[in-house]
Specification:
By secondary structure, the protein is of the alpha/beta class. The protein is built from twelve helices and six strands.
């Protein structure tokens, strides 16, 4: 996915942090495209679960004010987003803000903008430690998306995704979709601690994949404040890259890689085929209502 070079980006929508340690409380949702699946894989592969919550995977803390200042100076236009994964986060958030503000307005709902934190290696959240090992995730406790910018390389190197900007923006759009679910009341009615192929946990994740596809289908028409679309029309390669990312982190693919077998009773995100199917549904329909697994949009 390519940004229009002249589109304007508001970098203040993203809190850019350096590296830090520590831990928090609460329950993360979705864990990005991996989330709790990565935690399970980490344990199955011999990792110490304590390392995922105590910050031992983190490096030394940086001065976040200096990191933020550099980020704000660097990320201002679509050209910056095309040149930098950091700036693509800001550009993607701006586009998602604009799209979902209008889409929720059609449902009679005012969008509460989520907070977005981009970081290196590890940071803290109201839901605990955030790192590349836990994957990107949305934390309902502070309504914040946490995204380790080094995760994209993990996605490509360890899980076989094709990578590229479209895969990166799919991850971000999936996390943003969890915020939309939260605001619409999905988290109030779904049993998000259950597991299994037919569980609410899987339904929540597949709905987020579908909503990510909806935004992707509209992305080339979403304008910045001046009316310039943030993104150029998608290519078939863009769609393929997003689908590759979705497939790489299906429960069956991750379990097969981690333990050599598939355990449907432990599914939390859906199979590779299901994740691709739901993304395609959102992308081709362009209609959030087609993703409404819990009937919350008719009640909005």
């Amino acid at each position: 996915m390519t940004f229009n070079s002249g589109s304007q980006i508001n970098s203040s929508r993203v809190q850019r942090r350096g590296r830090s340690g520590g831990k928090g409380g609460g329950v993360a949702i979705g864990g990005g495209t991996l989330g709790l699946v990565i935690v399970v894989a980490w344990i199955l592969l011999g990792g110490d679960p304590a390392e995922l919550s105590t910050g031992t995977l983190a490096g030394p803390a940086d001065d976040d004010s200096e990191t933020q200042a550099a980020f704000d100076e660097q990320c201002n236009t679509g050209a910056d987003a095309n040149a930098s994964a950091d700036c693509r986060v800001a550009g993607g958030v701006n586009s998602l803000d604009a799209y979902w503000d209008a889409a929720l307005a059609d449902l009679g709902v005012d969008l509460r903008l989520p907070e977005v934190v981009a970081f290196d290696s590890a940071t803290t959240s109201a839901c605990g430690q955030a790192s590349a090992s836990t994957g990107p995730f949305y934390c309902p406790a502070d309504e914040t998306i946490y995204l380790d910018v080094t995760f994209y390389q993990v996605l490509a190197d360890e899980y076989g995704a094709d990578g590229g900007p479209a895969a990166e923006l799919y991850v971000l759009a999936h996390e943003y979709a969890h915020h939309i679910e939260n605001q619409l009341g999905v988290f109030d009615i779904a049993n998000r601690t259950d597991t299994g192929a037919d569980s609410d946990s899987v339904a929540v994740e597949l709905m987020a994949d579908c909503l990510a596809g909806v935004w992707t289908g509209h992305a080339a028409t979403v304008p910045d404040a001046s009316g310039t679309p943030f993104l150029e029309p998608l290519t078939q390669q863009d769609v393929s890259d997003a689908l590759s990312a979705a497939a790489a982190v299906g429960d069956d693919a991750v379990q097969e890689s981690a333990q050599g077998q598939v355990s449907p009773d432990n599914f939390t995100h859906g199979t590779s085929a299901q994740r691709q199917e739901q993304f395609r549904l959102g992308y081709t329909s362009g209609d959030p209502a087609q993703c409404d697994a819990f009937g919350v949009m008719s009640a909005a």
